[in-house]
Amino acid sequence: xxxxxxxxxxxxxxxxxxxxxxxxxxxxxxxxxxxxxxxxxxxxxxxxxxxxxxxxxxxxx
Length: 61
Ligand code: SF4
Description:
This protein is α+β, with helices and mostly antiparallel strands. It is 25% helix and 23% strand. The chain has one domain: Alpha-Beta Plaits, CATH 3.30.70.20.
């Protein structure tokens, strides 16, 4: 599973709270640290995508 963060990200930090192994806040938006996402973090990554207030986490299978 691959994931990216689009430019609508508001840098709120929710994704980093849910899955810090994959997401890390950068200066203006969240960055993806592990791509492809390791299998053990896929579920957390999907949860982060669901909880993202701006729907900025794009999952690319
Ligand atoms: S949860 Fe969404 S808006 Fe918030 S930092 Fe992560 S990608 Fe950006």
